[in-house]
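wait is this the right file?? whatever heres the structure
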């Protein structure tokens, strides 16, 4: 049972590239959101895939998150740059060893995640379940975040599928991201006029 480190190459996209094909109103809305704080885009299909994996067992289950990182234009409360973090997929840790309250993941999940990455994607974080324990970061979770998910963009996602709670943490210090900064989708590449569709999450954290 051992964690290995993140891959060395971490492509971070520029905002100009990410927004290049967006209609003006959508780009403007995304820019103003990113002036305030980091935005995490968490699509329903990834949520469903995570839920399907973790709700098969009452022990802690987990895996890795894949996604795209775009540097934003604002400054966060802790002095970093804001980011647009788009989660694009997840890789469940099938061979993980879990107990009711403790989870370890081995090298197989890292290898599977690296193989699943597209060129513009990174291993953007990790997820795990807290069945009926509440969604929070334990001391072990904090240490895991610092040791293996220490990039500014590294997401730690905890879901309690029994109580319908979830919580989001970011970066080596595991700053908690409030639910209003989690969007179900941003409708990219939509040439129709009007406001971009930045949808709130279906669940309320905490
Ligand atoms: Zn935990």
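ok assuming it is, sequence goes like this
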């Amino acid at each position: 049972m051992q964690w290995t480190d993140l891959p060395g190459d971490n492509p971070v996209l520029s905002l100009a590239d990410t927004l290049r094909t967006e209609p003006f109103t959508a780009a403007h809305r995304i820019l103003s959101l990113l002036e305030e704080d980091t935005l995490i885009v968490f699509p329903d299909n990834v949520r469903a895939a995570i839920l399907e994996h973790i709700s098969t067992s009452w022990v802690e289950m987990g895996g890795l998150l894949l996604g795209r990182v775009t540097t934003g234009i604002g400054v966060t409360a802790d002095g970093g740059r804001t980011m647009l973090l788009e989660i694009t997929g997840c890789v469940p840790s099938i061979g993980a060893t879990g107990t009711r309250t403790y989870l370890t993941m081995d090298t197989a999940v890292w290898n599977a995640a690296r193989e699943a990455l597209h060129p513009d994607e990174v291993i953007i974080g990790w997820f795990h379940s807290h069945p009926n324990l509440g969604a929070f970061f334990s001391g072990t979770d904090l240490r895991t975040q610092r040791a293996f998910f220490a990039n500014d963009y590294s997401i730690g996602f905890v879901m309690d599928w029994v109580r319908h709670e979830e919580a989001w943490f970011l970066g080596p210090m595991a700053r908690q991201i409030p639910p209003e900064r989690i969007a179900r989708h941003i409708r990219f590449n939509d040439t129709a006029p009007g406001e971009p569709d930045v949808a709130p999450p279906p669940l309320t954290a905490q």
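The domain at 15-183 is CATH 3.40.140.10 (Cytidine Deaminase; domain 2). so i think its the right one actually
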